[in-house]
């Protein structure tokens, strides 16, 4: 029989790729690779590093560290791992990895010197040792065993968790496991750079401590690492030793946040763009370049990574002065706050024109943050540093008025890099603005590009769909129109007036017509309540004038409430009363915008000339566009809605101006940008139809009714591989699509809603079966939950699919299930839930957990059928329940029984009798209770606890019972017993 791809297969493939790019790998033969290094360097399983290997390397790399003093250094280094908070420890240890550790050295003459000891040789990478091993286990309060770990000089820098799609798991499950590992064994991740989560098809990486939404793909590679296998390419490009050390040394920021520090590492687009800039500066042939990265891709961090590298790499630039130039005070404020919260040291903000000129004259090697407007009155030719590098955000603004000329006058010798998501190309004449001509050398379009399509493919941004509303029906209220207009055109019929307006009145005039505003407001209110409100999304109305904004604001507040709608524009003292009512100052606007980004009011913003650049609010789903935007201005508006959020499938533009009626005229960009910037919302509906068909096909041959028989058959169909995985993944996508499209009359008329109701019913039953959730319907999104509440008999599903828990009383419940596939799925889930937290409490639990995994893999691989799987799993369940019962019968506590079981079942030949095993177990637990202080938090992982347990084992096994061979012959014995004591709390 052909074996299905397993996690072990993914593991071996990944190790082979690492082996091919310079890692010394262990585990390629399918064995436990970490065991090879454990034996070679005498690592105890509670240790997170190969300290003996690091000892060798520290001596080899540092002339001041010798065999005589290295133990003192390593002991000090181990103490750096003792921290209560993972990110604090990670930040401190990163300093040691990049800048070395201070160490006091005793000289032969008696003097003491403080030296810097390097843990890694960054200048000569070949002097380091690079190991990749599988199944590296760490046992402290609990035991974790990630699939693959990467070590540099014995220090763990990368932890990888791998899943097999053939076993119904994917990279999402791998991320969850990694986050559990960070909670269970944080010491392993204190030196860590990033984690990798992968399955058979995809790979994601995320900085240590990152939430799931910040695990991202690595979808580009230098020519040397290019490969048709995307996952292989990602492993080689991201994890080759040179790139890994480059990331460690030059591409890590720590950002202070309200909930605690966050570690930030670059996306591949940022990393490769920065390296292009560094190469260009180093080569010195060209003095400019354009970085064209789509909105939402993190251009600010790209600039900051570039600045940090330019300032810290003398091989690139000797002593440069770096300017980051932004185009508004708002962006300046955002960048200032960013810099203040980052671990970037050499920077200053130009506070005025005079201050900027002084900074240019002084020429100090540092990052200078300034707005482009501050160059307006800077004197010509004041450059004080011959290595000036400028980076202009929103590069098209550099060409406005004479600001670009003022910058060129201030500096006589400089490099200039433009950053933009929306380059400008206004014509072919020399005087026309053209971002490409301004920043790109002849023959080069851009130095680096990251397109809208790439951003969508990577999940970094969402697709945006548009709906045309410019031809809405509205009645001309002749009595309400301007009297002069009526006098001028009183001879026209209503149709003639409508045609005249269409041909002669500007979009601004149209947007200020009372009946049209009333009609648009009614549409906005309906659309908001039906499409945005159910899932908590928010909207923005973009208007062509302050008067039209005020008109929209008045009417929307009437319909939605004053608290729900805010209007933002600049104010003047001569404004009319209509406009004055929405006057706000800068502080008030900041407060409104801050509230909008959260779940509170306002729900809708009405804006004129505000928030269309540099405004990121993932909660913003829809822009109601009543302004005739084009090209870069339109791209900027589109990008406001494309920020990802949980459950958000897409952004949306509701177009009241007809901007998208002719996309070729609206966007003068390449075909790919036009195709992916915004799409007709009918395409989203088509995607939903295709997704419904895709999921329904899983249940081919099963009646699509609400009967008990149909539900049983459907759940059985998705209880095993591969249908189980297909249903899990495809329903997740289907639900998001349905929430994005509904309500839509076609959902009912074309039967989509009917099919979705049925699938939602099956999903509720499936989740109860596979996840043991009592009320899975409560976790579904709002519109889906409404359908379930209205059309699915939850009581029937609860009766037919009882939530199964491990215990004698539930064995009868599962016997009542007719479907053996459902039985197996429920027992497997419940048994795993029971055993997982107990694996380190007793050796039987660990063996039983391994048996469950084996049974499930054989069942999903169709090596055994449903009835056989049920019987095998029930057997495991009964044995699991017997562990505690047998301990009670023997009159032993949990820790004592675990040690007794280990001695009698794991190493029976090492002891004389069961009675001796019982005496040894009793003695160990008794000494543990007497000698280990458990009265404080953290006792379980304290080094004193670990050392004292080892002394107890020496006393009991060696001194009292002459069983020293247990320690000498079995490297894992001490670790296992320590786990039993700690896990069972003594």
UniProtKB/TrEMBL annotation:
Alphabetized SMART domains for the sequence: DEXDc
Reactions listed under catalytic activity: Endonucleolytic cleavage of DNA to give random double-stranded fragments with terminal 5'-phosphates, ATP is simultaneously hydrolyzed
Domain called Helicase ATP-binding: residue spans: 280-441
PROSITE patterns xrefs: HELICASE_ATP_BIND_1
A Pfam family hit: T1RH-like_C
Single GO MF annotation: DNA binding
Keywords, comma-separated and alphabetical: ATP-binding, DNA-binding, Endonuclease, Helicase, Hydrolase, Nuclease, Nucleotide-binding, Restriction system
N-terminal signal peptide: none
Residues that span the membrane, as ranges: none
Catalytic activity, EC: 3.1.21.3
GO terms of biological process kind: DNA restriction-modification system
Coiled coil: none
UniProt xrefs under NCBIfam families: hsdR
Protein family: Belongs to the HsdR family.
Entry protein name: type I site-specific deoxyribonuclease
